[in-house]
Design brief:
Porin; mainly beta; 146 residues; seven-stranded antiparallel beta sheet; 83% strand; 0% helix
């Protein structure tokens, strides 16, 4: 804490995830292809800067985001592409935390996460498939300080 009410800090976290997205293309009810992207875990390393009023902290945060994704592309019922990879990107957001006691606090936090885009398929004849892993999160939390 500095300049009376300003607070600066860092946070790192990692969590299992079940985020996923899929797209299906069909013609006259016949599926042509199906694509899935699943995020297996998400981690962040962020800086936080906030302003404290008594036991309440309002802050902004931003930094590195990383996660493991799996992409699957199925054409005519046959899997033609399946790849798992670790991706890196960035995150930015804001939060509010309130200390109930010196050891217990609760809060909520919003974040926008962007792990970038990747070409999944490029057949060289004009057919390309690309994923773009970007999403919003909103979480509530309870902290206990030892």
């Amino acid at each position: 804490q500095f300049a009376d009410r300003w607070v600066i800090g860092a946070v790192a976290d990692i969590a299992a995830s079940s985020y996923g997205a899929s797209v299906t293309a069909s013609v006259d009810g016949t599926e042509i292809f199906n694509g899935d992207v699943d995020l297996k875990y998400l981690g962040t390393v962020r800086a936080r800067l906030g302003h404290a009023w008594d036991r309440t902290l309002i802050y902004g945060h931003g930094g590195l985001a990383f996660g493991n994704t799996e992409q699957t592309l199925t054409v005519g019922g046959t899997t033609v592409f399946n790849e798992e990879q670790t991706r890196t990107g960035w995150t930015i957001g804001a939060g509010l935390e309130h200390a109930i006691t010196d050891r217990i606090s609760f809060g909520t936090e919003y974040a926008y996460v962007d792990l970038g885009s990747k070409h999944i398929l490029d057949n060289g004849e004009g057919l390309t498939v690309k994923d773009d892993v970007a999403f919003h999160t909103l979480k509530a939390f309870v902290n206990y300080r030892f």
